[in-house]
C-alpha cells in the first residue's frame, strides 16, 4: 500500500503542475480578453474551476504522502 500511495502521490503531483500551468495561462488569457474589450476584470468560470481543482489535488497529494510514510 505504501508504494502504491507514493506512486499515486507522484502522479497527482504531475496533475498539480498541469493545473498550475493551466491556471497561469488562463489567467493571462482572461486579462488579455478584458484589456482587449477595455473592461474591468471579470469572473472567468473555467479559471475558478482550475483553482478549485488545484486545491483538491494538493489535499490529495498531502494525504497520499502521509499514508505512504511508515
In short:
84% of the residues lie in helices and 0% in strands.
Question: From N to C, what is the helix and strand string?
Answer: HH
Secondary-structure-derived class? mainly alpha
Shape, principal axes of CA atoms: rod-shaped
Low-confidence stretches: none
Q: Give the tally of β-strands.
A: 0
The percent of residues in helical segments reads over 70%
What is the overall number of helices?
2
* β-strand amount: under 5%
Can you give a write-up of this model?
With 70 residues, this protein is mostly helical. It contains two helices and no strands. It has helices spanning 2-36, 45-68. The model has no long low-confidence stretch (mean pLDDT 90).
Write the layout of secondary structure elements.
Elements: H1 2-36, H2 45-68
Helix pairs in contact: 1-2
Name the descriptors.
70 residues, mainly alpha, 2 helices
